[in-house]
# Entry
Amino acid sequence: MEPLVLSMGWLGIFSPLALGAIGSMIGVGRGGLAAAGAMLEVEAGYGRFVGVSAMPSSQTIYGIVVMLTLNRPVTLANSPGLFVLGALTGVALLVSAMAQGSACAASINASKSKAEVFGISIAPAAVIEGFAVFVFVFALVLAASIPT
Amino acid sequence: MTVKRRYYQLVSSLPAIPYFRRTRLLPLSRRRLEERLALLHEEDLADLTQAEGLISWRRQPITRTTEEIGGMYDELMATTRNPALKSIVEYRMTMRTVLVAFRLKHQGRGVPSGRWGVGPYTRMIESRWADPEFGLVAVFPWIPEALEYLNQGDAVALESLGMDLIWTRLSKIADEHPFGFEQVFAFAFKWDILQRWLSYDAEKARQRFEDLIMEVTIDHQELFA
# Structure
């Protein structure tokens, strides 16, 4: 039983980065495909499409920071806390990156034929980013209360 | 099991398609459209090609018999995997069936026998032949308007009504499935409607194009006079 509990602690430490990175890959993939498609339709302004498609990268950065904050000697006392906090943060980052990728793809699709909506069309993706930031910040706050 | 494929690149490579009554130009050529559709998964492309062969506004050979159309419809409904594609094919074919029934009745013919239409309402139409609207107004609210055009002999208005109904349904399907196969086939069918609509008015379009060229040329001459 003891090794299992300790393994869960390690799982919790690495989950924010692993799941956040998986989400970023999927999200950037969605945005990148949309950007590549839009490039076939427009004559200029390719850079902004690529920039928007890279937005879901931030979840990996949040994951790195949360992982480093959670990183400590794993004991039976702190393992459950590390697992719950790390795993839930990871899932939240994964889902937010995927959703943000879809929002970025929609933004690219809308702005390719109507350049004037470019700014406002990114707003939903920015709101999704806000939720990821909430998870990130409060994961850091709660990590301080897990025993070392 | 239906596989939900997403076509981020393909959908983003398609231009915005304007409502058919408000435009005079196709947003892209058929060749370019087919190049883009080549990005579809082979199963989806096969389903789309099969559906286009049946409900396209421009690919209906006059020699095709009702039996052949019925056979194609049955095959498509049995093999197509996408429920939204099935629903739009059924809607379009049912609409054609209802209009065929109205035309037959308009010509003073009796209840048709054999296979004369497709879809779920053929038996109901036969059984309620005496009813001026076959008792279908609750299901198809467009019937009174269609009958009016039919009685007036206004074939273009009737065609336009059918196109508008299909267009609206395609827009709804596309909105419900962002970046899905549904958005792709909705575009392809809308392109087809638009192409057909513009072909009615090719002569006017040519005249307008020449007028625009003339305007631009005159402006250009004045600018550099």
